[in-house]
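With this grant's support, we have settled on a layout for protein records. A representative record follows, to show the layout.
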Amino acid sequence: MTTIVQPKQDGLPTIGLLALAVTLAIYVFSQIELVRPPVFLTGGILLGGGTIQLLTGIRSQQQGRSYAAATLLPLGILWLSLISYEITPQMGMGKHPDAITMFSFMSLWGLFVAILFLASFRQSVAIQTLYGFMMFFFLALAMDYLRDDRVFLWLGSGSGLFASLVAAYMVIAQSYNQYCGRTVLPLGEWKVLAAETDDY
């Protein structure tokens, strides 16, 4: 007899995912000159979204959800730090870091998300997809600081927007599934087929 065993998964809280989707999307748009939003709007959303992720991460740690805390706490710090790197120089306060500094900064965050990606293989397929595209997003933006052709900017922006859409889908799916009391919108939960031998 074969049974399906589904381990308990420490997913990301809905409010943290929503904040991640919004901050990721607004940051991508802030990098594209054709659709760049006002600097005050970008700064406000990064500040609010980063704070929400930070507080959600702290709350997750208090609840014993270590995986969610390890994800949301650093990402909240990331968006808040980008305010000083990207937003305040555009407002005339401070100086924008040079290309090597930003390359190193984005590369380190790309490596951090790569670690999250490698640790997500017992999570849902949706989380794996989210981290995979976020990893490519940060690494592509890092490479863009070393090149002038903007190819990596567009590749990274596309990956970032897709990751934002994945996060938004996860918010909708988790909320709707919880409302229905069953899985209606799949997230690709990880399952294991375990064989049980009957006694004869």
Q: What stands out?
A: Confidence is low (pLDDT under 50) at residues 1-9, 192-200.
